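Re: that chain you flagged

S.,

Sorry for the slow reply, it's been a week of failed gels. I finally had a moment to sit down with the sequence you sent. For the record, here it is as I used it:
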Amino acid sequence: MSLTEERVAVEHVVGRLDDVPVGEGRAFVAGGVQVAVFRLRDGSLHATQAACPHAGGPLADGQTDVDVLVCPLHLYAYRWSDGTSSGGAGPLRLYPV
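Prediction finished late last night. Pasting the structure tokens below so you have them in one place:
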């Protein structure tokens, strides 16, 4: 499993697919940056910044489905499609996996 930074097309290997159980997220470090990687029940992978932009919550511990990631601290929901929040918090940084 690897992440790609779009700006300079740098790829970082962060772990094996089996490191992230189906339906859960895990935190990794990629290029010195903490990221949260999720393996959804539909088999897709998603990656984002590890800390919630609202209050720094650990996003890898959040709940997710095919559409949104919910921060475990204040239940802010972020769309996987574009990183925006339905609750007014700043957008998430998303990474291709």
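What I noticed first: Strands lie at 2-5, 10-13, 24-30, 33-39, 45-49, 63-64, 68-70, 77-79, 94-95.

Talk soon,
D.
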